[in-house]
Amino acid sequence: MNKLIVILILLLIIIISGCANQNKPETTTSQQTTIPTVSGIQELALNEQDLQQLGMTSAMSFNGNDCQTEEQTSFSSSPVQYSICNYTINSLNDTWVVIELKKFTNREDLNDTYLYESSHLYSIQGIISENDYGDQSLFRVNNVNDYMGYLNEPGVYYYHLWICKNLYLIHITSSGRSKDAKEYIPKIGLQILSKFG
């Protein structure tokens, strides 16, 4: 009789502990990593206050909108949130700015895309700075030694700034005849980074 009671108590403990473990939330790797303060790429887009502060204007080109958002796939076929926005710099005639924002589902895809986009087709001669805006950032201007760089129209400058932050890739590009765009592009990058809190 005592053995039966002990066996029943042990079975009851096993059943109760099994139920308790089922109700316990599982710890996943995504819960262990730092959760970004921005949840999607829409929160990173420049708003009217940002544009006024930066001296920029929307260049509505996507069916009346300055931005277009869609889903793409990464190198590993994982989903990527993607947004592209067009602007002009008010004080610089004929200078256009394109901002591309991407949110990845994993760091490997982010790193692969950053390395490919920021170095593929570009020479080292155009690099202005590296890692000034985080551990993975690159600021550059077009150079004749870039792939097909000799085809660039003389006197037109293409500035590029790539910034990685959490699972986001920010790519800001300008096109125009003013070298002064070099001063605006980092300000735009810093404005976007400020949205992370």
Which secondary structure elements does this structure contain, and how are they paired or packed?
Elements lengths: L1 H22 L5 H4 L15 H7 L1 E3 L8 E7 L5 E11 L6 E8 L3 H13 L7 E4 L6 E5 L15 E9 L2 E9 L4 H13 L4
Please give the CATH architecture: 3-Layer(aba) Sandwich
The major beta sheet can be summarized as: 8 strands, antiparallel
The total of helices stands at 5
Relative helix content: 25-40%
What spatial form do the alpha-carbon principal axes imply?
A: globular
Q: What is the CATH topology assignment? A: Protein Transport Mog1p, Chain A
Give a concise summary.
It is built from 5 helices and 8 strands. It is of the alpha+beta class and 197 residues long.
Can you walk through the features of this model?
The longest helix has 22 residues, at 2-23. Helix content is 30%, strand content 28%. The chain has helices at residues 2-23, 29-32, 48-54, 107-119, 181-193; strands at 56-58, 67-73, 79-89, 96-103, 127-130, 137-141, 157-165, 168-176.
Can you tag this structure with a few keywords?
single chain, 30% helix, alpha+beta, disordered N terminus, Protein Transport Mog1p, Chain A
